[in-house]
Amino acid sequence: MSNENLIFGVYPVIEAIKSQVTIHKLYVQKGTSNTKINDIVQQLENTDVSISFVPQEKLDKLTRSNHQGIVALSSPISFISIEELVENAFAKNKKPLFLILEQISDVRNFGAIIRTAECTDVDGIIIQKKGGAPVSGDTVKTSAGAIFKMPVCKVDHIKDAIFYLQGSDIKVIAATEKTDKILYELDLNTPLAIVLGSEGKGISRSVLNLVNEKAALPLLGEINSLNVSVACGAFLYEVVRQRAS
User: Fold this and answer.
1) pTM above 0.85, yes or no
2) What class has domain 3-74?
3) What's the average model confidence in pLDDT over 19-29?
4) Of 115, 192, 215, 243, which residue is 20 to 30 A from 34 by alpha carbon distance?
């Protein structure tokens, strides 16, 4: 059984059902008194979903994480092409907002970024087909189910995605400490894509050479970098602030 097909935790399972994700099997902890889990069981018991009541040890073995007494086996999410992603965003929003993740390898960071992106009305996330964190059960869990509401595009190369976005009149900025320009100096009230780099190396030099602008966050302590998901939140909420004013 692949972890990429597992959804665990009460709210991620609820969001999966609301988003009409195909669920093949539901594992529920025996003797649970959680009313939300009982509501899920009642909702699915007259469908084609196979429901099994199992010991906690079974759920622990399936997820090795905080399953909260419920695990669903789902079909993998569908990915969208970059052409469709951009077209859909412009159709509903004159100033679309995208995230480009270059080699984000930590599943928990990936999930946290997706959750923040959904909360700040990001139109889609672009990732590379190889080298990044997988869309797994842990991603679903840490995103609190937001992965089912967020279009995700996989591309062969991040650089090709940047060229395509720039050709669509979307400004691409890099979140990087390798600049003297502070985020708050930039105009973000425009069609925009924000590039975030890997936890260890940041954004590669070849990608930095392609972006329209680079921006850093002010760091006032002795540590010279932020966790990538925290930096993501700071960037996205500055976009929200500028566009609301």
Assistant:
1) no
2) alpha beta
3) 84
4) 115
pLDDT exceeding 70 applies to what percent of the chain? 95
Q: Out of 3.40.50.300, 3.40.605.10, 3.40.1280.10, 1.10.10.10, select the CATH number for domain 82-244.
A: 3.40.1280.10
Domain boundaries, the chain: 3-74, 82-244
Instruction: Look at residues 120, 84, 107, 112 and name the one whose alpha carbon lies nearest to residue 192.
Output: 120
Over 13-34, what HEC string results?
HHHHHHCCCCEEEEEEECCCCC
pLDDT tens readout for residues 187-215: 999 999 999 998 788 899 999 999 999 99
Q: What is the reported pLDDT for 199?
A: 79
Would you state the structure tokens that stand for residue 175, as one six-digit string?
């979140």
DSSP secondary structure string for all residues of 182-197: BGGGS--SSSEEEEE-
Q: Which of 138, 117, 148, 124 is nearest to 20 (CA)?
A: 148
